Amino acid sequence: MGEAQRRLLGYRSALLEPPMAVPSVSTLLTARLVEAVRVAGLDGYDIAVERLAPTSKAGFGDYQSNHAMRLAKAVGQPPRVVAERIKQALEADEAIARVEVAGPGFLNLHLKDEWLCQRLALQCEDPAGGVEDSGQGRTVVIDYSSPNVAKRMHIGHMRSTIIGNALHRLYQASGWTVLADNHIGDWGTQFGMLIVAWRRWLDPVAFEADPVGELERLYVAFREAASGDAGLEDLARQETARLQAGDPDNQTLWKRFVAISMAEFQGVYDRLGVQFDMTLGESFYNPELPGVVESLLGSGLAEESEGAVVVRFAEDAAEKSVRGRTLVIRKQDGAFLYGTTDLATIEHRLASWAPARAVYVTDGRQQLHFQQVFAAWKAWRQARGLDPQAIELVHTWFGTLKLPEGMMSTRKGNVIRLVELLDEAVRRARAVVDEKSPSLDEAERASIAEAVGLAAVRYSDLSQNPQSDVIFDWDRMLAMDGNTAPFLLYSYARCRALQRKGEVQQPGVQALAVSHPLEAALVRQLLRLPDVVAAATEGHRPNLLCDYLFDTAQAFNRFYYEQKVLQAESEALRASRLALVEASARVMGRGMELLGLRPLGRM
Ligand code: ARG
User: Which atom of ligand 1 is nearest to the CA of 369?
Assistant: First the structure.
């Protein structure tokens, strides 16, 4: 997408620097292994070198390759002999301290500390933190948050907002052009019901106090009344039809409902620092829906069934999950459905932005919905002679987040005001800050509490495997130790405190060197950031980055407790350890920003 097009879209996603060209250690070593294989005369076998990843166990070297074992058969030599040939070619490399041929023919690579320190300095000085450009100019649409108008944003929408926003940041950092789209539910038959209820039962005082709450109450009131009075349903249908036909009074009311809800949603977005590039809700696609159904009928994919129009998936459909299922795209009464809108949405996104990928972030209960929509869209493309793979469609679903019984004044079920939940988080964080840092002034404690409270809510969500069900737990998320936001923030602030205490004017990373196994381990850990970001982005698993940050903070703390920094044995050691402190702060800080956490210089 060109600059002009971004501006046209009101492009606001450039929160983070685009990646620069600092290759990661894994990338460099993989390239060097490829080169060594060539030098050893072993490149003619059509067996690609697999990307190297850091080893997890001590004793396997820093990196391990099984390439010799994969080649052996084709070469016609024993794997260990092939490994020896590659080993010789590798040993000349400036990065490599030594190579061992181990077990059946593994190559264990031990890297030089000095070389690793140079790489770490480059990584830290790269504005992108060494995160690689996996996007390569491609565009991804991320469809997240997407609450429904005239209803409260529920806890599932909060998860979608938090996880979606982390993916938004991760993709952006990885060089993708991200278009964040808030696909709000702002259309449908419920608006006819609301219009009827509004005209009959609106309580202006309640509305003044809590507009969205009153809209919700009106909706519930309508449902209750309609169960004893079938005429009401008819009235609602008429009002919906009038709205759709452009009746000015109904349009005005509907716009008001949308504006009221958007203001409530915006409160949550502002608190969480979430910005969308567009909010194209369901209503935006409404004019397209008759055409979608016509086209599906015309291409023979949809059929009429008892007055409705449906897409039937064959018993042997390519996509297993949809076999034998039916997706209704127009009801008997002529109304279109959620799936019809989603089909029109894919078409619109493809035609407008030609994204390589579209990612939908919702809870797991919508799995079947998206499987059907994706399968129907692909079949529809094919029927029109178009490429069904033009967009890679991905549903990133998450499990449910349960609030413990009686956690807040929940009105019913899990429906609470999310802004209140965020306020409560900040209030609780304030208590922790008051206890730990009574010497800081009032304004600073308030600002720290705001950062810690929001970070705690965010991080407790992101640090779990997205697909597990989780229970919201204040004590756990605010704990100072364990895999929590306060622990991470505290570890980062500890770096900054140390620099203040040492009166370091301009902290830098040039003096990096290794004088102890704990430092060697920390350097290696810090160098993993780019690989972890790549894995978290591609796998849509921000929790991988959380795990990494937790390990990093632990590695830093071990170093901090064992090694003298400010009182180091020599000036050179003091400088190199301070450089290690700075490198740790940069890596932890960058990682936290990628998750939407604001690192604090003081806690
Ligand atoms: N509004 C929907 C809900 O609250 C989520 C929409 C997700 N996005 C989409 N394109 N269907 O469940």
Answer: 11
Q: How far is the CA of 18 from the centre of ligand 1 (A)?
A: 29
Q: List, in sequence order, the alpha helices (H) in 437-570.
A: 442-462, 474-477, 485-501, 517-526, 529-538, 542-562
Using one digit for the tens of pLDDT, what is the confidence trace for 219-233? 999 999 999 998 999
Nearest of 292, 375, 287, 295 to residue 327 by alpha carbon: 375
The two structure tokens encoding residue 245: 């036909």
Q: Which domains does the chain carry?
A: 3-111 (3.30.1360.70)
Tens digits of per-residue pLDDT, 41-99? 999 899 999 999 999 887 899 999 999 999 999 999 999 999 999 999 999 899 999 99
The pLDDT tens digits for 188-209 are 889 999 999 999 999 999 999 9
* Strand, helix or coil for residue 217: helix
Q: Calculate the alpha carbon distances from 238 to 232, 247, 253, 288, 378 in Å.
A: 10, 11, 15, 21, 35
Ligand 1 centroid from CA 308, angstroms: 23
**Ramachandran category for residue 397: left, alpha or beta (phi over 0 → left; psi -120 to 50 → alpha):** beta
